[in-house]
Design brief:
The complex is a heterodimer. Chain A is mainly α. Chain A has one domain (about 65-285): MetI-like fold (Orthogonal Bundle), CATH 1.10.3720.10. In chain A, about 75% of the residues lie in helices and about 0% in strands. Chain A has 14 helices and no strands. By secondary structure, chain B is mainly α. Chain B folds into two domains: about 30-60 and about 235-275; about 65-235, Orthogonal Bundle (MetI-like fold). Helices cover about 80% and strands about 0% of the residues of chain B. Chain B contains eleven helices and no strands. The chains are: A mainly alpha, B mainly alpha. Chains A and B meet through helix 2, helix 4, helix 5, helix 6 and helix 7 of A and helix 1, helix 3, helix 4, helix 5 and helix 6 of B.
Chain lengths: ~290, ~280
């Protein structure tokens, strides 16, 4: 008891308290409640029935694995596309751009402060039939280029577009952790450019690259706006299913089961990553 | 060094690639601005007739004023509350050493790694279970779940460079805890607080997935834009989009100019002492 009181008097504990309590009420609470609802009989709105696995069984036997699969595939392709897109820029920002790095950082961060909806709407205008790209192709070359909107590729474009900064910034931190002397030493010992990349740069930058990839993957896995705005009804991603279970179908337990499965999947990935990473080292660079 | 020739080429290629990606990032926003000046009821490219009439109509519309007012109130409240919570949260994250800190660092960042649409739905469930009727007030709460951790992260970057000796010196000179907080800790963390506040405001201003499920009968600008995009398109969509983008740009410009002015003033103050 005395030890607990002593611990509570530490200024670190005291200052951690407000935010922790807030997130306990606003984050842990709702998630526990979703977990609770996932064991309730279908279409109930209270938590007082006897727990059942009925919803888990019905979700697994129905075709929900399709939307899970689409989300997993699109999230994975997003990460795979963003790696080569971001690596050169991250390398430039960490090692080459010097005083211009701040400007590039600002220019890439600014769109994050504009609503995702507005930016995705811009893509609608670009990809639309008779939109900017189609219209320009028609009047310049007489070649119509319609049918780009409401496709899986359009969703993928939206995901790559929206989540680019989330991949890039952790990557910059990762690459700036590589000491230049190590690279020079490897070159002096006769390593090729490719060997230096694979055996010096990549392993040392890995914590940043991993954080960026996981962040992108998880955000893309649970994304809703991209498939709704750019995909129309072409495919259903898992967040769509969760939304319609909670809203149109008014089936909270089913929506909860789908959420729990998505959270468990994301949580597993974050757990595997976070176990290997020291945040002090990455953010504070100590 | 032998690699100089190729590294010059690499450098050029990296710059070119960066410029291309920046263009890619800004292209859709330019498209929205372009569309806001089109006279036609439905967007077609190339635009045949330009007009600014939709700006007038948008600004006169009472429902748009309501939307702007709701979004502004939510964003302002989120900013104030988040900055206060995150200020202490960041001190615990980066400044103090305490048992349990490593665990706290990881747990407190979890909401950032969480799909926002699912978080919004979980909160909807939570509110209705607690008997809270959703409105713009619950949206403030919902936004904060996601924004407080982000602001903690931003402020922590500043707090890591904090030298604890400064606080200790003030204590040794007889300052109270409150005086140390106000006259040492706050000024040192000020840049982090300002950038945290800007992020909090603009992220709340632009948020869609959390607002969608937590505003109830009220509506924010991003929600309205989405509803109109999906059904009932009006040229006010690109116009209101352009307006909110310009407002965000203006805010950032003002903050940047204020920062420039203050750093010039500081230089002028310190210059005589240096020479």
């Amino acid at each position: 008891m005395a030890r607990l009181l002593h611990w509570l008097k530490n200024p670190g504990v005291l200052s951690a308290l407000p935010a922790s309590l807030f997130l306990l009420v606003g984050f842990a609470g709702p998630l526990l409640m979703v977990l609770g609802y996932s064991f309730m009989p279908p279409k109930t709105f209270t938590l007082d029935s006897a727990p059942t696995l009925e919803n888990f069984v019905s979700v697994i036997t129905q075709s929900y694995y399709l939307s899970f699969l689409w989300s997993l595939i699109l999230a994975a392709i997003t990460v795979l596309l963003l790696f080569p897109i971001c690596y050169p820029i991250a390398y430039g920002m960490a090692k080459l751009f010097g005083k211009w790095a701040n400007l590039v950082t600002a220019l890439i961060a600014l769109p994050l402060l504009i609503s995702e909806n507005i930016r995705l709407f811009g893509w609608v205008l670009l990809l639309l039939k008779n939109g900017i790209i189609d219209g320009a192709m028609q009047s310049l070359f007489g070649l119509p280029l319609s049918g780009m909107l409401y496709t899986v590729s359009a969703i993928l474009l939206g995901l790559v577009y929206v989540y680019l900064p989330f991949m890039l910034f952790p990557m910059v931190i990762g690459i700036s952790m590589i000491p230049d002397t190590l690279k020079e030493a490897a070159f002096d010992l006769g390593a090729t450019r490719w060997q230096v990349f694979r055996e010096v740069e990549l392993p040392l930058a890995m914590p940043g690259i991993l954080i960026g990839s996981i962040l992108t993957f998880i955000l893309a896995l649970g994304s809703l706006a991209e498939s709704k705005i750019l995909g129309g009804q072409v495919i259903v991603m898992i967040a769509d299913d969760i939304e319609s279970a909670f809203t149109f179908a008014q089936n909270w337990p089913k929506g909860s089961v789908l959420s729990v499965l998505l959270i468990a999947l994301s949580g597993l990935i974050v757990y595997i990553l976070f176990r290997r990473i020291d945040l002090d080292q990455i953010i504070g660079r100590r | 060094m032998s690699g100089t020739q190729s590294s010059k080429l690499t450098r050029t290629l990296i710059w070119l690639w960066t410029a291309t990606v920046l263009l890619f990032l800004y292209m859709p926003m330019l498209a929205v601005v372009l569309a806001s000046f089109s006279k036609q009821r439905y967007f077609r490219f190339p635009i045949t007739r330009y007009t600014t009439e939709w700006y007038g109509k948008t600004l006169e519309s009472l429902s748009v004023r309501d939307l702007l007012w709701t979004s502004l109130t939510v964003a302002a409240l989120v900013t104030v509350f988040s900055v206060v919570l995150a200020f202490f949260g960041a001190l615990a994250f980066a400044r103090y050493d305490w048992k349990g800190r490593k665990l706290y660092q990881k747990l407190v960042l979890l909401p950032i790694f969480f799909p926002q649409a699912v978080l919004g739905l979980a909160l909807l469930l939570w509110f209705s279970a607690l008997g809270v009727i959703t409105s713009w007030q619950t949206a403030v709460f919902a936004h904060m779940i996601w924004i407080v951790p982000i602001v903690i992260l931003i402020m922590s970057i500043q707090a890591y460079s904090f030298d604890p000796a400064l606080e200790e010196a003030a204590f040794d000179l007889g300052a109270t805890r409150w005086q140390v907080l106000r006259e040492v800790t706050l000024p040192i963390l000020a840049p982090g607080i300002v950038s945290g506040a800007i992020f909090a405001f603009l992220l709340s201003w632009g948020n869609f997935p959390l607002s969608l499920f937590s505003t109830g009968a009220d509506s924010t600008v991003p929600e309205w834009l989405y509803a109109k995009m999906v059904s009932g398109y009006t040229p006010m969509v690109p116009t209101l989009g352009s307006l909110t983008m310009s407002a965000a740009a203006l805010l950032l410009l003002i903050v940047y100019l204020a920062w420039l002015a203050s750093s010039v003033r500081r230089k002028r103050h310190s210059a005589p002492a240096d020479s």
